[in-house]
Amino acid sequence: QVQVVESGGGLVQPGGSLRLSCAASGSLLSIYAMDWYRQAPGKQRELVAKITTGGTTNYADSVKGRFTISRDNAKNTVYLQMNSLKPEDTAVYYCNVEALTSSYRGSYWGQGTQVTVSS
Q1: d(Cα 80, Cα 98) in Å, to the nearest integer?
Q2: What pairs with residue 77 in β-bridges?
Q3: Contact, 37 vs 45, CB < 8 A?
Q4: Which of 96, 99, 97 is CA-nearest to residue 37?
Q5: DSSP secondary structure code for residue 74 in this structure
Q6: What is the pLDDT of residue 103?
Q7: What values do phi and psi take at 69, rounded to 5?
Q8: Would you say residue 1 has pLDDT above 90?
Q9: What's the pLDDT tens digit per position in 23-32?
Q10: Is the sign of the CA dihedral 44, 46, 21, 54 positive or negative?
Q11: pLDDT 10s digits, 77-107
Q12: What is the distance, to the nearest Å, from the Cα of residue 28 to the centroid of all Cα atoms in its chain?
């Protein structure tokens, strides 16, 4: 069993910052890529940022220069620092972890954390 838990969401004014965290735990042998997705009401879930085991990162064009993804491999945790937030960043943010257990390699999702950007 693998558990993925996000935290750090909330209400913030435009121009503000938030830091999301996502911790993976359970019967993990290895963790590979760790990603952040988001889903706004009425829209499809979209990839926000990805980080590989080696630290290579990729970002959606809409967040480049404002968001930073990082990870602590010792803690099986990934972070998303979000600066200069805009109302259009409002969404439920989900963490996705590609992990290996004793029997399976696959993607594991968290339950999501709400981010609301509003004045």
Answers
A1: 17
A2: 23, 72
A3: yes
A4: 96
A5: G
A6: 85
A7: -100, 140
A8: no
A9: 999 989 999 9
A10: positive
A11: 999 999 999 999 999 999 999 999 988 899 9
A12: 19
How many whole angstroms separate alpha carbon 50 and alpha carbon 90?
Answer: 19
AA letter at 91: A
Structure tokens at 11: 């209400």
Question: Tokens representing 112?
Answer: 């999501």
Q: Tell me, rounded to whole angstroms, the distance of Cα 18 from its chain centroid.
A: 12
Kindly give, in sequence order, each residue whose CB lies less than 8 Å from that of residue 103, ignoring residues fewer than 6 positions away. none
The residue to which tokens 């609301």 are assigned: 116
From the CB of residue 112, how many other CB atoms can be counted at a distance below 10 Å? 17
Q: How many CB atoms lie within 10 A of CB 6?
A: 22
- b/e per residue, 70-87, with b = 16+ CB within 10 A? ebeeeebbbbbebeebee
Question: What tokens does 31 get?
Answer: 């963790």
| Sequence-separated (6 or more) residues with CB below 8 Å from residue 64 | none
Instruction: Please give the Cα distance from 58 to 48 (Å, whole number).
Output: 8
